[in-house]
Amino acid sequence: MTSDSKREWRKNTLDPQVHRFPERQDRFKSESGIDQDVLYSADDLEAAGWDYMKDLGFPGEYPYTRGVQANMYRGRVWTMRQYSGYATAEESNRRYKYLLEQGQTGLSIAFDLPTQIGYDSDHPMARGEVGKVGVPISSLRDMDVLLDGIPLDKVSTSMTINATASVLLCFYIAVARRRGIPPASLNGTLQNDILKEYIARGTHIYPPRPSMRLVVDVFKYCAAEVPRWNTISISGYHMREAGATATQELAFTFANAIAYLQAAVDAGLEVDDVAGRISFFFVAHNDLFEEVAKYRAARRMWAKIVRHRFGAKNPRSWMLRFHTQTAGVTLTAQQPDNNLIRTTIQALAAVLGGTQSLHVNSRDEALALPSEEAVQLSLRTQQILAHESGVSDVVDPLGGSYYVETLTSQLEEEASKYIETIDDMGDAVSAIESGYQVREINQAAYLHQQEVEQGQKVVVGINQYTGETPPIEHLLSVDPQSTEKQVRALQQVRRERDNSSVQASLSRLREVASGEECTVPAILECVESYCTLGEICDVLRDVFGEHKDLVAF
Amino acid sequence: MQQTTDRIRVVVAKPGLDGHDRGAKVVARALRDAGMEVIYTGIRQTPEMIVETAFQEDADVIGLSILSGAHLEVFPEILRLMREKEMSDVLVIAGGIIPEVDRDPLLEQGLSAIFGPGTSTQDIVEFIRKESRTRDLP
Asked: Which of A127, A547, A375, A461 is nearest to B46 (CA)?
């Protein structure tokens, strides 16, 4: 028998089959809870009014669903960028040189928590935290050591830094200037996405509104002085890690993006001067097709938002360029070698989805910071995907799949509804102030945990196929003496600097921060006078106040 | 009020500077759903703040969650402050990213249990029910 449509096929062939042999589950859902039909066909696309030219178009052209470049990885494969930093500037510098030798093509600096929250390494709040999750950078001296021997005019550097983003950018610019490299030739990305810190990641310092001003100050400064720098990397990653679904990841990221772009426009910047320097950062989670669909939906959504909502004219402004990291939350401490398989599938999703750069997590990261050996495997995973699997040779290879196109449209539709809800609240900042995104994410995280505990979601090695495996050896641990070393270096900086120019530049910063002028030049002056990170942030704490978290669970 | 006073009181706290609070919040909610009274402190708590909260709230249990790697410095300080305040009847449990080699030293210093990634919240509930002293009715 040959059926003429999906509906007929369901009646003629599928239903009798399922009647005889019941399916494994009553309902099949994606990782994010979207119902999955047994099969997708041309009938589904037709029913949804799908149109190739309107919904996809061609790569390198609006709405960029298929990719931002015409030939994607045939020109150059994605940037392999493993996030790293720990112990001290010296130790991290050694790791960066190692990664570059191993074929990594860009740097990605992880800062320790005191640096991210604006405390010097010897501050009481920094106790136990110095050099633990990243490198401590308290002054220009530390940044100089961190970047020793790194060709700043050739390597692009991504810095995961938010509340203190402008200070760290100034450290970077100051090091370059001392080496005779003009800021205009620097390439890199500042995460600078403070809004998601209130929602998920938690390294905010000041309240949301003055923080938005600091973000826009970076936009202003870079538009004039560091034009090749990506001034923000608007991140869904951490919200997803905190429990958000793929739909929420898209929606909350774009709601934040809309708030930043609006703030820039309100501050008098041209949308086309800002939008082209905006980049994004998404997770690559377990559900292969949903993730690919998510990246494709993201490109289409952003192109429409920038072009139609903000009226941008330059095609570069419409393009969504993004970094991807595999999902930390999917790593298991049990049977840790399984993580290699998970991250490979996730990395594949990122590449099939057209990412511009990629970090692959290491198998030991549910236990500790990754060891050098584990990081090398992560890099090799990327290299095998790029050069052996064939996936980098054809643009958007899943484009046209009935299933992936349906999912892409569904994700766009669901995420757009969420954005409307946030629009109705005012904007992302107002929604944050009312705790909206946090509540939504808490709810999704709890639901996920229950599904795992009740066995509706299988996690291999956790709730099925359990069994002991030998522990991973050679985990990285940070030498406690590295903190002492760092603190001694910091105290030497304080002793040897010219304290009158320190005081003068800090008072100048206070004056600028209290007014409306761009804060970045004043911060650069502080940095070049060897003011420490903590001193600079203390001035801003004084002027702006500190954020009080809403505590809810 | 009589009915609430015999419930196990748990302070769930995030010591250190890391903002990864998914685990802490999921556990807090699971404990509450299991009938316990839960106070969640929020992130960036110093040892002093945590011990003070537990003291003021008359907690039976302190649940610590940390993923930043500062546990070897932060946990012993919490235990020391608790001894100072003679809070020896308070059960202290922890979760997060705590490498195997650090576990025994922490357990020897007075931590009652460490629940790593992949733990079922039901195991935590059962552990608390078994180990914490349900308080006498007034």
From this structure: A127
